[in-house]
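To whoever is covering the structure queue this week,

Two jobs came back overnight. Logging them here so there's a record in the thread.

Job A:
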Amino acid sequence: MWVYVLIIVILAVVIAIGALLYMRNVRKEDIKAQQAKLEGVRNLPFQDELVKVKDYNLHGEAQTLYKKWQAGWQDVLKTDLAFVDTQLSEAEQDAEKFRFNDSREKSDSAKKKIEEAEAGYTTLTSEIGNFFESNDIGERKFKEAERIYREAKRDVLANGHQFGDSQPSLEKLIETYEPELKSYENHVNEGNYITANKEIDEVHEELSILKKSMDEIPVMIKEVQKDLPQQFQEVRFGCRDLKAEGYDLEHIKVEGKLSTLKGKLNLVEPLISRLDLDEAKDILDGINAELDDMLELVEHEVKSKTKVDHEKDIITDDLFHAKDLNYTLRTEIDYLKEYFHINETDMHRVQKFEHEIENMIDVYDDIISETSKSMARFSEVLDNLEYIKQNIGSINEEQNQIQQYLINLREDETEARENALLIQDRKEEIHRELFGSNLTSVPEKFLVMKNELDIEVQEIHKYFKRRPLNVQYIKDKVNRAVILMNKYEQESYEVLQNARLTEVMVQYGNRYRKDDPDFSQMLSEAERLFRENRYKRALDIARNALEKVEPGAAQRIEKEFDEH
């Protein structure tokens, strides 16, 4: 037994030793990887980047930056990476002695320092790269600013007449940039690249604005000296022509506004000569906006006249058609209300329309008065026409509906009277048919239905004598009588047809009675039911009896009966 225990203990010891050796190897591999990374950081090409700075004037700001970057990297190499080297050596010793936790802590600390060193390298090289880029941009802006300066100076000298009184101010302004351009070169020669780039950025922006302004000044001068005065004259003469054609433009106050705009325009040239271009632009924009507003008002008057000429006759016809129709409706209502019940709502609507139409005729009179003047304000005329147009259409539509309603009163009364007479004649005709038929007796329900119809017709004729007559009520009453009449007629027709067809089938079946007692008995039953006014049941029995003795005979008899 102790042998097995010994074997188990030996195996456990062997496994434990193997595990420790495996963990030590893992830690060593990790430390070797960190050492390789450390060597990689040491060999980063920082000096290759830093040596490019020497291509610049290594004085002033450039020298200060060079020393700062060099010291920063040396600090990383001598302090951070030396610390990493020590930590990794101790971590390796701890691993040899199976102190894995201590080894891991030192290895992780070294790893963090390596990452910080890499980040430091990235920061320093980025600063160097930004320095190169800023200098390239500064040099490019300097060359462009120098070109703008030369072209502006040449343009003012060669084309001074285009700039008017602003030429001396432009010359002085342009000359102020020469020392600023030289200042950039001086700063560069002294190695003060940051200051040089900042100054040239401002100079470049100002010269770009100056170039844009120089492009705008001739255009602004042309607008002040030629374009706007010409537009003022065109507006003045154009409005005079319109007044001669009968347009009232007093509300636009053309002469007063043009005089005010001319006064504002006189302020612009002195501003341009002083290079106060933003203020000059604001005044010009305001003048153009006011001029546009004035022209829009004039154009509105012209368009208003065109629309008035196009729509005046149409609206006049609609207005006086509404007036005539309103008079007709009032007259007709006064006449019809003694004979017919007329909706109070419609009578009030006609009265309301009368007042509205009179108000619109007053507006129309103002239109006629205005257009008959030597000068008319067509925008106001159009507003009045639009007011009439917006209202007269709906009034005409509603008055037409009321007129149709009054027409329908007479037509509906006539139709109701005709239908009442038709009901009277038809019910008597059906009554005669029933009593003149071969029926043994008329079923009682037909007598009841005729009596109901008699009462309905009497009430209808009696109601027709009332004044005023409620046409809708009498229409509904006649329609109910028509429905009752149709039912009376339909059921009478069915009874007469069933009775006649039953007789035909019984007569046809008599030939089989002697030879077929059962058949004879069925026919006798049909005859009994016939005498008891049960015609539909009698027909069914007679039809079934014939089908038994002669299949198809009943269907043939019905077909021949329907054809005759």
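Job B:
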Amino acid sequence: MGQLGNPKLKSTTKKSILCGVALSVFAGAAIAQVAAPEAPLKLQTDYFGYAAGVSARMSYSDNINLARDGLEDDEIIASTLLTGGAIYSTPRVTAMILGDLDFSYLIDDADFAVNQNVGATSTFTAVDNWLYFDLSGSSSRQLAGDNARFSGNINAGRSQRVNVHSYNASPYIFHKFADESSMELRYRFSQVFVDGEQSLASLFRGSSLNDSLTHEVIARYDTGRKNERLRMRFTAYGSDTTEDGVDIFPDFEYRQGSLSADAQFALTQNFALSGAVGYDEIETNAATALFFDDDLLSGFFWRAGFTAQPGPRSSLRIEYGERYGDDFIDADARYQISERLTFSAAASRSFRTRAQSISTQYRTTQRQTLDFADRLREGDELSARSVIESANWYANSLNFGQAQTSGVSVSDNASVALTGAYDRTELSINGFYSDDNFGYRQIETIGGGIDLRRRMSRRLTGYGSVTYRYTDTAFDPATCQANPLIFGFDTSDPLFDPVMSCNDLAADNGVTNTLIGRLGASYNLYENASIFVEASRTERFAPNPLLEYSETNVLAGITLDF
């Protein structure tokens, strides 16, 4: 382990890690204290920082199975939550791990449950400015299908969730030349495992979850700043993805190759025209070929727009284009409104499996962690918060009801966020939109949330949040009748009736609106010990009364930080 050059570094990074972990829906009650303003880190040699906490809790739910009205069953739960994270950095290795591990015992059901939400990312330097190796992984419980039931209680509706484990490994060559241009040659292997035992655990028939495996190769050259006005990036990309079917469900397979050229032409110091042109060649196989036409997915693509940097604290890129047979917007924006308040937004279009999408979360984080450590060693004074929050992407996913489902989709995604951290107050406002076309079904999701924490006094902190998620799952019953295996039906069953089964499945889909409110308070008994109490209420509204449910959960406990 590296030696701490300054005792304050450990304390500072510990507070930074706690800020990131506190975003998690698991740890929201346990770590409710608002951290003091963080000092920037300054690193000249090795560094190790960590944070850890343990929380003993008791809770009560009036609808543990998230059943509809009249079928509720209450439950008392005793649990222990372990939460924390660590950062380790040397000139050759930079690594982070963050997450939560909850052990719960449902007293009335006499059932023991484990809930995990853990992620790690690391990057290794073999040869400076030449050879690197990235390794990442995560394990979490996610929804088994887009219309699966969820609430503010991690133990409610357990039959609606599955364990999702992922990892990816990527050796690559990266070299920055003296003229500021750079080149990258990368191979990435990534795999996602969904527990087979629970992959069909959904109250809605027809759901299936598959493992997913991808091989990727990337070659990229970036001109950087060698030309004062024109910056170009040339990319060659290839991938082979297989989503393995379980039991009776078929495989989804596709291969993708693309060539692209991105460009920015500066008209002024703060404004540039930007865009890209390229060509996709996509080959669908197995079940994927039933629902996508290779000729529509393949072909030339383009996007065009502008990039602006109105000030030193803001950046904006908006581009409109066409890809995978339809138009789309590709954009990202960031505005540091003040030292403590930040706005960000993004939009994109992709063709991928739902399971494989979680691996893409690490791609920017690994480069960011490496750059972060390098800049510290060069003498910069930096905050660890942004890097930690980026690595801690999974902490927010459950608030939005992140779901796993089978198939390959053309997906349009957009997100927006406003975050603020003040001396006594922390604020987070998030919104998102996604439209996933799987060929045999289409899923539209809209949601967002508000999270507020306020330190009332030196010892007392209050917090609350509101989360909303709208989902519309739609499919053509005729497609279901023609391809019942894709929808999870066993056609070998002598009692199977495709018309009746598909019509029943259609009744279990449609529009749902889920609203979760949470309110709580934490009181600091000693420097590292606090007690807390909170209550949450979940309501799902739907045109179909069979899809509706509600739950009230009350939680109290004590937390020790180390």
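Note for Job B: The chain has nine helices and 25 strands.

Please reply-all if you pick these up so we don't duplicate work.
Q.
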